[in-house]
Amino acid sequence: MIPIKDRAAIARMRESCAIAATVLHRLQALVQPGINTYDLDQAGRDLIAACGARSADFGYQIGSRRFPAYTCLSVNEEVVHGIGSLKRILRTGDILSLDVTVEAGGYIGDNAITVPVGAIPPRVAELLQTTEEALRVGIRQAQVGNRIGDISHAIQTYVEARGFSVVRDLVGHGVGRTMHEEPQIPNFGRRGTGERMKPGMTLAIEPMVNLGAYHVKTLDDGWTVVTVDGLPSAHFEHTVLTTEKGPEILTIPRPPPSPALPTSPILTYSTRN
Ligand code: MF3
Ligand code: CO
Ligand code: CO
After folding, report:
1. For residues 102 and 108, is the Cβ–Cβ distance under 8 A?
2. pLDDT tens, residue by residue, 197-252
3. Element (H, E) at 43
4. In terms of C-beta density within 10 A (0-12 exposed, 13-18 middle, 19 or more buried), how is residue 231 classed?
5. Measured from the CA of 101, which atom of ligand 1 is nearest?
6. For the whole prediction, is pTM greater than 0.85?
C-alpha cells in the first residue's frame, strides 16, 4: 500500500522539500574546478543545519553499515551514493551528481541534479539534458489514475530513444516519514503496470542514466555505485505530490533563499584544498 499524506503531512513535506531544494541550489553554486567533494559535503552539512534541518543521509543504515557523509556526491562514472573525499578534486570536464535528502519536522525531502564542471564533451552534455528531461517526462505521468509503471515506461522510452541506458539496480521511491517508502519506482518497465496513483502520494522520481551500458556495481566502500564500463552516469531527482490537478513538484527552492542561510562563510571551504 502506498501511503497517502493528509493535509498536515503535506504541509510538512512542503517544508522539508523546500529546504532540500534550497540546500541543493546553494550547494551547486559552489561547484567549480579545484574544489574537492569533501569540502562540498561539509558545505552541505552547514547549509542543512542553517535551515534547521537534519541530513537524512548521515547515519543512514543498510545492514550494519552507516552512510558517513551528509550528502551524496557522485563524480563521472559514480552513479549515486558517492562519499565526499578530499582526494576527489573536481576538474574541468567532470560531471557531478549532488543528491540532498533532509528531514525537517519529521518528514523527508529528496532531490538531486547533475552539473557540469566547466566545459564537458558534447555527448556528456546530451546525457545531462536527456536525464533532466527524462525526469520531466516521468513526472508528467504522475497523474491520479495512472499507474507507477506509466512513469517507469515513459522514462525508459525517452532515454533509450536517445541511445543511453537506464540503471536497473536502483529505483525511485515513495518518500515521507522515512526516506524510502512504498512504492518502488523503477526507471524501466511496462505501461499500465503497478499500483494506481491517488491524490496525496509523495514520490521521489529519479532517473539514473548511463552513457554506456546499464550495468552497475558497488565499490568496496560499501556505498559508491559506479558504472561497470567506467563511462559517465547522470542523475536527476524531484519529490513530487500527486493531486487531482496533476503532479506538483515539491522540491523547488524558496524564491528569496532562506534568510537563515549564511552567504559568505560557505565559500571559504573552496580555499582549503
Ligand atoms: N538520496 C538517495 C535517494 O535518492 C538515498 C541516499 S542513501 C544514503 O534515495 F545512503 F546516502 F543515505
Ligand atoms: Co536522492
Ligand atoms: Co531518492
Report:
1. yes
2. 999 999 999 999 999 999 999 999 999 999 999 999 999 999 999 999 999 999 99
3. helix 37-50
4. middle
5. 1
6. yes
- Domains of the chain listed by start with CATH number: 7-266 (3.90.230.10)
Are 249 and 237 contacting, i.e. CB atoms less than 8 angstroms apart?
A: no
60 lines ligand 1 (CB under 6 A): yes
State whether the beta carbon of 101 lies less than 6 angstroms from ligand 1: yes
Pick from 123, 125, 128: which is nearest to 112 by CA? 128
Instruction: Using the structure block, give the residue that is written with the C-alpha cell 543511453.
Output: 164
Residue 57 CA to ligand 1 centre (angstroms): 6
Reduced to 3 DSSP states, what percent helix, strand and coil does the chain have, rounded to the nearest 5?
Answer: 25, 25, 45
Q: Are 51 and 97 within 8 A, CB to CB?
A: no
